[in-house]
């Protein structure tokens, strides 16, 4: 059975934003703020609780104790398909040019890209807190968005991160994703990261690239970050599902497939 994809409406987004800021929301106050009935607000909260975005209590809701899906620690996620991720990162680095202004999100594959940019003068704007610990060389300038720090994913999210991105236009956008498919676009297991991904795509005036190892191709997670027509290019490896690759090409996505056994002896295990 195909997994359902949860889409959050504008009012629910604002409720979640307030919840991130205050830690708790109340039905009566939300009803007054949005000019809708308390029944409507309760229905919103019930819908979001089913998606594990919050936990309801009598008269309101609070942040959940656990994320919407079991999300692996960043270090654990980063070790999965590590050989593929490094090959993809090297290929993406070749697509970035001198003086580019590059958006990079908190994806584990994306974290490896700066090490292959050390001879290029580029600026990276990212919500990836782990990026500050990467050896990216003197020619690379790194700007962190700030925001709410997620200790599990090492991402920075929330209004502060979004406002920082809204002040910049990038020439290239590189996103790591939890899933990409021709039908559902790019998806993630954490709602908070969808708004960051969307903001990066919207503020990019050049090529919009997804860097995804083979396990992400054809996969759909809970929350939509963007439809597939917002993506110009996918960089993946030869282990990706060829049928899904063809579907993505048919939707207008340029797909660069990195061989898993390139010259030089590196290979995907």
UniProtKB/TrEMBL annotation:
Quote the InterPro entries the UniProt record gives: Carb_Metab_HTH_regulators (IPR050313), DeoR-like_C (IPR014036), DeoR_HTH (IPR001034), NagB/RpiA_transferase-like (IPR037171), Tscrpt_reg_HTH_DeoR_CS (IPR018356), WH-like_DNA-bd_sf (IPR036388), WH_DNA-bd_sf (IPR036390)
Give all residue intervals belonging to the HTH deoR-type domain.
Answer: 8-63
The GO terms describing molecular function are: DNA binding; DNA-binding transcription factor activity
Q: Which domain of life is it from?
A: Bacteria
Q: Which PANTHER family match?
A: AGA OPERON TRANSCRIPTIONAL REPRESSOR-RELATED (PTHR30363:SF44), HTH-TYPE TRANSCRIPTIONAL REGULATOR SRLR-RELATED (PTHR30363)
Keywords noted in UniProt: DNA-binding, Transcription, Transcription regulation
PROSITE patterns hit by this protein? HTH_DEOR_1, HTH_DEOR_2
The name under which this protein is listed is Transcriptional regulator, DeoR family
The keyword Hydrolase is annotated on this UniProt entry: no
Pfam families reported in the protein's UniProt record: DeoRC, HTH_DeoR
Give the originating organism.
Answer: Anaerotruncus colihominis DSM 17241
């Amino acid at each position: 059975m195909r997994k359902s994809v949860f889409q959050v409406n504008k009012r629910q987004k604002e409720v979640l934003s307030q919840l991130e800021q205050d830690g708790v929301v109340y039905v009566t106050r939300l009803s007054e703020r949005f000019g809708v009935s308390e029944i409507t607000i309760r229905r919103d909260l019930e819908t979001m609780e089913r998606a594990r975005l919050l936990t309801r209590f009598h008269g309101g809701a609070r942040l959940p104790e656990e994320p919407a899906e079991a999300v692996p620690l960043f270090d654990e996620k980063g070790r999965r398909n590590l050989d593929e991720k490094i090959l993809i990162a090297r290929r993406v680095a070749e697509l970035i040019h001198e003086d580019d202004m590059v958006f990079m999100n908190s994806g584990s594959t994306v974290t490896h890209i700066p090490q292959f940019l050390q001879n290029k003068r580029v600026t990276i704007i990212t919500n990836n807190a782990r990026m500050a610990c990467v050896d990216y060389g003197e020619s690379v300038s790194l700007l962190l968005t700030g925001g709410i720090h997620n200790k599990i994913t090492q991402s920075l999210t929330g209004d502060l991160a979004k406002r920082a991105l809204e002040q910049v236009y990038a020439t290239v956008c590189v996103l790591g994703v939890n899933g990409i498919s021709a039908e559902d676009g790019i998806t993630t297991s954490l709602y908070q990261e969808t708004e960051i991904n969307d903001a990066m795509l919207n503020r990019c005036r050049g090529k919009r690239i997804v860097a995804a190892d083979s396990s992400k191709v054809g996969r759909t997670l809970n929350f939509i970050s963007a439809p597939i027509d917002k993506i110009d290019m996918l960089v993946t490896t030869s282990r990706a599902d060829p049928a899904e690759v063809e579907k993505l090409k048919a939707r207008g996505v340029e797909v660069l497939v990195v061989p898993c056994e390139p010259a030089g002896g590196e290979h995907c295990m």
